[in-house]
Each structure stands twice: as structure tokens, then as C-alpha cells.
Write a structure and sequence with these properties.
binds zinc ion; 256 residues; 8 helices
């Protein structure tokens, strides 16, 4: 038996490295750029980043948040995303222990985080997250614990079908695209991790968060709602607290 503390620390270190990669993916995938080539470089002066400056979080701190070559500030997003991803992985493995479910949950939350970052910055949900995540979700369902393969397939089917329906109905009603293809593929991915009940709760929470938080801003400024962010938040909350939310709703609202 490995000490749970060591498991969490190692998972956290893995999460830091994945967070570093996630930074690259969320910036390059929406622009159809390779995440391998060219290597990491300063976006302002193009100077390649040395491997020892690329160590998650610590590299940023050691450089004082500035490029070694041109001394221009480095976006705070890099260390924040690294730290957040590290915390997600440490948290999942300290909560669920050294298990397949801890890995499944940590991967799912990392993908959702990547989707939220891409959608916030570019209004794009890269296929690598949605379709790649769908393949991953269906595959992981064959591992012990968590969702079973049939539940994952049905969830993916429902997620895709429901949003496709909303897209078609919305286009018919408003005569313009109401739902992006990225959101549809994303919900197929979410369904493969959460199953059919999870899809329903995710859409409900996503619409709720979106209308409460972004609705007023969008209404005032006419800015497009990056719905993927709110679906991602809804899916993360559903993964963590789905059964408790349904039970609370059944008891306090429906009085079952
Ligand atoms: Zn530079």
C-alpha cells in the first residue's frame, strides 16, 4: 500500500506538467497549430524557452514573471493554469485514492478546463478536446469503477442528440445559428463520462450558470455567449456533486 500523501503529491506533479501542456493546447489547437513544433517560445520576441525555465509554476516565479531574453511580462495565465491543473489532480487522487476513477475524473476535469479556456479566448472548442475526449471517455468506461460502457454510449448519444435538436430547432426559430457544432460534440464527450442523467443535469446547470452570469452582460453588450464555458462548469459540478444535487432537488423542490 502506497502512502496516500505520496499518491496525492505525485498526482499533483503530474497535473502540473499536464497543466503546462494544457496551456499550449488551449492556445494552439483553436488556431490549428501543432502542439509539438515549434517548441515553446516567447510570444513577443520568439526566444525559445529553456527547459529549466519551463518547469511549471517555479519557472515563472524564478524568472519574476518576465521573459529571460526581452524582459516582457509573461501572462499570469500560464502559472495559474498549471497550478489549478495540479490541484485538480492532487485533489482527485486524495479524494478517490489510487484508482481508475481518480484518473478518469482528473482527465475529465482537465479536458473541461481546456474547453473552457479555449472557448473563453477563441470562441472555439477544439475537436481534440471534444472528439478526442469522447474516444477517451468511451474507452475509460471499460475500466472498473465509474460508468459502464453501455451507460457511456447512451450518454454520448443523448448529449449529441439533445444539442443537435436544440441547434436545429434554434435555427428554425431564430433563423440563425443558436448552437455551435463545438458545443454539440462537447456534449457527446460529456455524456461518455457522465451518462444520460449527467447530460441532463449538465445542460440544466450550464443554462442556469450561463443565463445568470453571462446573460446580463450579453444582453447589454450584444456579445456572444461562450456557452462551452458554462457547459464545462455544469459538467464539472455534475461530476462532483450530481447525486447530491438531484437528491436535494427531489426533497426540497419536488417534495418527494
Ligand atoms: Zn521574450
Amino acid at each position: 500500500m502506497i502512502d496516500p500523501w505520496i499518491v496525492s503529491v505525485l498526482a499533483g506533479m503530474l497535473g502540473l506538467m499536464l497543466g503546462s501542456f494544457l496551456n499550449v493546447c488551449t492556445i494552439r489547437w483553436p488556431q490549428d497549430e501543432s502542439v509539438v513544433f515549434p517548441g515553446s517560445h516567447c510570444p513577443r520576441c520568439g526566444d525559445p524557452i529553456r527547459w529549466y525555465d519551463n518547469v511549471p509554476v517555479l519557472g515563472y516565479i524564478r524568472l519574476g514573471g518576465r521573459c529571460r531574453a526581452c524582459k516582457e511580462p509573461i501572462s499570469l495565465q500560464y502559472p495559474l493554469v498549471e497550478a489549478a491543473t495540479g490541484l485538480v489532480w492532487a485533489g482527485m487522487f486524495s479524494y478517490a485514492g489510487l484508482s481508475w476513477e481518480a484518473m478518469r475524473g482528473a482527465l475529465f476535469l482537465t479536458i473541461l478546463f481546456g474547453i473552457a479556456l479555449s472557448d473563453a479566448r477563441f470562441y472555439i472548442i477544439p475537436d481534440q478536446f471534444s472528439l478526442g475526449g469522447l474516444v477517451l471517455g468511451l474507452g475509460l468506461a471499460f475500466l472498473p469503477g465509474g460508468i459502464d460502457p453501455m451507460g457511456a454510449f447512451l450518454g454520448a448519444f443523448l448529449g449529441f442528440g439533445l444539442l443537435q435538436f436544440v441547434a436545429v430547432a434554434g435555427k428554425w426559430a431564430f433563423k440563425k445559428d443558436a448552437m455551435g457544432g463545438g458545443d454539440i460534440k462537447m456534449m457527446a464527450m460529456v455524456g461518455s463520462f457522465l451518462g444520460m442523467p449527467g447530460v441532463l443535469l449538465t445542460i440544466f446547470l450550464g443554462a442556469l450558470f450561463g443565463s445568470v452570469i453571462f446573460g446580463p452582460i450579453s444582453w447589454k453588450t450584444g456579445k456572444l455567449v461562450p456557452f462551452g464555458i458554462f457547459l464545462a462548469a455544469g459538467a464539472a459540478v455534475t461530476y462532483g456533486f450530481g447525486p447530491q444535487i438531484v437528491e436535494w432537488y427531489a426533497t426540497n423542490v419536488l417534495h418527494l
